[in-house]
Design goal:
By secondary structure, the chain is mostly helical. The protein has one domain. Helices cover about 60% and strands about 0% of the residues.
Length: about 90
Amino acid sequence: MQINWKVRFKNKIWVLGFIAQILLLTELLLIGGHAAGLTHFHLTEEMKEWIFAFVNVVFGLLATMGIIQDPTTNNFADSKRAMKYIKPK
């Protein structure tokens, strides 16, 4: 699977979703590191509930608007057309 990163990073909506997922992954790694005893980072249960609720609402909204998926493809890879152009059409 080959991805045309230059085109994707020119799409502001895709970049927003990508950043949100990187932040979520970072949080998950920090929580896992704390559980494994590798870090002292700790979230209270109240903070976790608020963060997960916020992330769920944001991703639910983005998914409803069709922003999370790439509308140029049927599967997970970029379409042949998307691989050939330099800027989004």
